[in-house]
Structures are given as structure tokens and as C-alpha cells.
Specification:
- By secondary structure, this protein is an alpha/beta fold.
- It contains 15 helices and twelve strands.
- The radius of gyration is 22 Å and the shape is globular.
- It binds S-adenosylmethionine (SAM).
- S-adenosylmethionine (SAM) binds at residues 36-38, 60, 62-63, 65, 80-83, 86, 231-233, 250-252, 259, 286-287.
Length: 412
């Protein structure tokens, strides 16, 4: 394994263009702001090294950054996620839209603006502590707007309206986005201008979101993107053998961040979640999942004697973490067991000569530094991949030892 540090440490501090923050004004990439998205610039640099003959895979789709970046360059890309909301989001971001669908979306928005939103008896999602998210008047206005959308038949236009609605939902919620995840601000969040009503505030956000979405929906991506609902620990059951010539991806990091936590508002409004138990069960299926009931399931989880994590310091690392917290030791062990299962299934669907690029972050638990990049490198080598290179790309904002890396490897 080769270790490359691309830049002096001081230059690695806070490169916002290498995170989701750089994606906001990037056409369709900016449709819905989500913390787990990785940098478009980074992906574009990696995609620039490919040709139209390449077939790309992103086994951890998230918001579909890789698929959309490939589509923009006319490169075919398949992508997989086990979260059905993200599968929908990525499909909608990569889809072509007909003129009639764009016209219909615009017309719906114009008609919505013409009527006050009065949703006294309209449905609201069964999300716990809903008033932590939205004040009662804002919630009623959102519910009324959503009720109008449920009358729309399934179509590209309805998908675009749902994207604009998701934007409105989050822009009117009492949440702030810190460096790593989302936090609540205060119970009654809406700064209303003078006598502006909740209906006017919600409609204002919605109108701007529709305009923004329509601006970029008009450009048709040229590459074919296919988005699959599935588990990246069993890729061989989902995708054809020896097909992919490149992988550009960012798996979850072993840092206990829950994707479901941040996605909950969208998932409840659009019907992908109907109770808290489901959120925990979905997170339990995710690599590194730790939300709700996933935590108690991790506490009972036992390592499999058949799956070895091939990095030499692994057992000592897990023991070191377990001395402070048995739960966290099990969490990290499970994370890398899942990563090893994923890589074992990945190699079977890679073509000879395929180059993989994994954007990963290291973590620290108590005084134990977890070199995620080295462990992935060791897993790739043990799975028969060659030419493994670890490239350090960015200092993260949190603790001082935390960095982001790209682990590159080639299938012989
Ligand atoms: C770091 S995010 C990917 C972010 C993505 N690169 C983007 O730009 O939005 C990791 C993703 O992996 C997904 N994931 C976790 N475990 C998975 C599994 N076993 N199979 C498929 N997807 C999984 C999560 O749902 C999450 O969307």
C-alpha cells in the first residue's frame, strides 16, 4: 500500500468546496441539501479521468452525486442504496423531463400561489414531536400544500413538485445544519416578516424552490443512470458479474452519524416512514447504522468467526474502544465486518482492470484513532485488489486528527 499526502497540512483545513457545501449552487446537485452528500468537485475530478466506454458503479448512492456527475458527461452509471427515499431522490435528479411536465409544474405553482393555504383538517405526518420541527401555523400551511399535491397523478411533474415541497419543508423547519449534522433551533422557528402569514411564508419558499428546480430540470442528462434499491453487502445478487470498469463512492463513515435522522422529515412527508420503529430498522440495515432500535441491536451483536477484518491492528483497536464502551467496540467491529462483506461482493462484479475510488473519513473513539483508510486499504488488498493507494485530501472540521481520504485500488 502507498500513502500519498497531496498537500501540506495547513492547506487541508476546511476545504468547503470538497464537501456538500460546494454542491448547493450546482444545478440539479443542489436540489435538496443533505449533509451526507460528498463533493461534486471531487467526483467531477474522478469522472474526468473516465471515458464514455466506462461503466461506473456507486454502491452507496446517497443523493446520487456520482450518478448525476456521470450522466452529465454521457457516462453510464449504476448506483445502489438501501434507503428507498434516496433511491427516489437520485432517480428524480437523473431523470429527463418533458416540456409538458415542466409546464404542468409551473402551472401548479402559479395556482398554489393564488390561494391561501388553509389546512385545518389536512393530514400531517406521524413524526414524533412534530412541533419541534414546525410551529402549528406553519405545519397547517405545509399540510394544506401537500394535500393539493396528493391529488396529482404520479408523473415527472409530481416528482419535481415533491422536490420543491421537500425544500420548503426543510427551509421552514426549526433546524440548523452544523458541520456534521442537523440540530433543532427552538420550538417556534418562523421569523415572520411584519404581518406575513404562515401561508405566505410557506408559499414564498415553495415558489422559489419550484423556480430553482425548473431552471435545471430543463437540461437533460446524457448518460444513462440506473438507481437500484439494494444492499451493497450483496451486490453479486443484484448486479451482473464483471461489469463495472470504475467505482466512485463514499460509504458511511464509522462515526455514528445517522442518515435517517436527517432524512426523517422528507421520509415521513413522502410516506417512506410511518413510525419510529421503521426508521431504526432501516438504519440497522445500513452499514454503520445506529439510530433508534439499531443501538440496542448493536449492543447484542456478535462478531462472526468467519469474517476477518484483515488489518493488523484491528483487534487491539476494538479492545481499546471496548475498554471505554462495549457498545462502541461492537459498533466499530460490525462496521468493518460489513465493509469486508461489501468488498467481497464488489470484486465479483468488477471488470478486469477496474479502478475503485473510495472517499472515507477516519474517526476517533476516546483515545483510539481509527484509521478507516488503512483498514479499507487492507480489506481491498486481502480481496485481491492491487495498486492500492491512500490519498489524504482534506482536514475535517471536528477533531484535529480527523481527515478525509480517497482509497484507490485496481482489480488485476
Ligand atoms: C456517505 S452516504 C453517500 C453520500 C453520497 N456520496 C452523496 O453524495 O450523496 C452513504 C450512503 O450509503 C447508504 N448505505 C449504507 N449502508 C448501505 C448498504 N448496506 N447498502 C446500500 N447502501 C447503504 C446510506 O443509506 C447512505 O445513503
Amino acid at each position: 500500500m502507498t500513502f500519498v499526502r497531496t498537500e501540506p497540512e495547513s492547506d487541508l483545513r476546511r476545504k468547503d468546496h470538497l464537501t456538500f457545501k460546494g454542491n448547493r449552487s450546482q444545478g440539479r446537485h443542489g436540489w435538496l441539501r443533505l449533509t451526507p452528500a460528498y463533493s461534486l468537485h471531487l467526483v467531477q475530478d474522478l469522472v474526468a479521468g473516465l471515458s464514455r466506454q466506462d461503466v461506473v458503479l456507486d454502491p452507496f448512492c446517497g443523493t446520487g452525486t456520482t450518478a448525476l456527475a456521470c450522466s452529465g458527461q454521457g457516462i453510464a452509471c449504476d448506483t445502489v442504496d438501501l434507503n428507498p427515499f434516496l433511491v427516489w431522490l437520485a432517480s428524480v435528479k437523473c431523470a429527463p423531463y418533458e416540456e409538458a411536465e415542466l409546464r404542468h409544474t409551473r402551472k401548479f405553482s402559479r395556482q398554489a400561489m393564488a390561494q391561501e393555504l388553509n389546512g385545518n383538517d389536512a393530514w400531517a405526518p406521524p413524526i414524533q414531536d412534530i412541533h419541534k420541527w414546525w410551529s402549528e401555523p406553519t405545519l397547517r400551511a405545509l399540510s394544506a400544500l401537500f394535500a393539493r399535491m396528493t391529488e396529482e397523478p404520479a408523473s415527472g411533474a409530481r416528482d419535481l413538485l415533491h422536490i420543491a415541497f421537500c425544500r420548503t419543508v426543510i427551509e421552514t423547519a426549526a433546524v440548523s445544519f452544523g458541520h456534521q449534522s442537523m440540530s433543532f433551533r427552538r420550538a417556534d422557528p418562523q421569523p415572520m416578516l411584519f404581518n406575513e402569514s404562515a401561508s405566505e411564508v410557506v408559499l414564498g419558499h415553495f415558489e422559489r424552490a419550484v423556480a430553482d428546480v425548473l431552471n435545471t430540470a430543463v437540461e437533460t442528462p446524457t448518460g444513462s443512470a440506473r438507481v437500484f434499491l439494494g444492499d451493497s453487502r450483496n451486490l453479486d445478487a443484484l448486479l451482473p458479474p464483471e461489469r463495472y470498469s470504475a467505482v466512485i463512492t463514499s460509504p458511511p463513515y464509522p462515526n455514528r452519524m445517522s442518515y435517517i435522522r436527517e432524512l426523517r422529515p422528507y421520509m415521513y412527508w413522502l410516506g417512506y416512514l410511518t413510525d419510529g420503529r421503521q426508521a431504526g430498522e432501516l438504519d440497522w440495515k445500513a452499514i454503520g447504522g445506529t439510530w433508534g432500535c439499531a443501538t440496542s441491536l448493536v449492543a447484542k451483536w456478535e462478531a462472526s468467526p468467519k469474517i476477518l477484518v484483515p488489518w493488523k491492528g484491528f483487534d487491539a483497536c476494538i479492545q481499546g474502544i471496548k475498554e471505554h464502551s462495549d457498545l462502541l467496540g461492537r459498533y466499530v467491529h460490525k462496521y468493518f465486518e460489513d465493509a469486508a462483506l461489501h468488498v467481497a461482493s464488489l470484486v465479483t462484479i468488477l471488470a478486469r482492470g477496474a479502478r475503485v475510488h473510495y472517499v472515507v473519513g477516519n474517526s476517533k473513539f476516546y483515545d483510539v484513532l481509527l484509521p478507516t483508510e488503512e483498514i479499507y486499504a487492507a480489506i481491498f488488498e486481502a480481496a485481491g485488489m492491487g495498486n492500492v493507494v491512500v490519498e489524504r485530501i482534506r482536514k475535517r472540521t471536528s477533531k484535529k486528527e480527523l481527515f478525509e481520504f480517497i482509497v484507490h485500488a485496481t482489480k488485476p
